[in-house]
């Protein structure tokens, strides 16, 4: 045995008791690959039964954080701002607009000083016309 053979055997030792028959596996022992199961209902989106909507009537800007927490928990929020001063109502709308944007949700005015904030998981269809002149 030469020096190269000794180094080769040291780096990657070869087992002399190696039996090729141990590696042979019968085809019956190999498991068939699992086929992907198609969903039973195609095109139907399952809606969680625990979807909730919360109503808020904040009396200070600090309560906007509570609305944001509910939005992060995938709950829709209706916020009535009529008890806030105009300046604080605008700050609340600005804050909630940022929260909704970050969550890929939507924000809509649904009445005088009333907004609807929804996370991405809740869809809103239709619009409410706020103009009293149209009939």
TrEMBL record:
Keyword Cell cycle: yes
Keyword flag Cytoplasm: yes
UniProt entry keywords in alphabetical sequence: Cell cycle, Cell division, Cytoplasm, Septation
A GO biological process held by the record: division septum assembly
UniProt-listed InterPro entries: Cell_div_SepF, Cell_div_SepF/SepF-rel, SepF-like_sf
Gene3D superfamilies in the record: SepF-like protein
Cell compartments where the protein resides: Cytoplasm
Pfam families: SepF
Domain of life (superkingdom): Bacteria
GO CC list: cytoplasm
Complex and partners: Homodimer. Interacts with FtsZ.
Family listed: Belongs to the SepF family.
Task of the protein: Cell division protein that is part of the divisome complex and is recruited early to the Z-ring. Probably stimulates Z-ring formation, perhaps through the cross-linking of FtsZ protofilaments. Its function overlaps with FtsA.
This protein's name: Cell division protein SepF
Species lineage: Bacteria, Bacillati, Bacillota, Erysipelotrichia, Erysipelotrichales
Name of the encoding gene: sepF
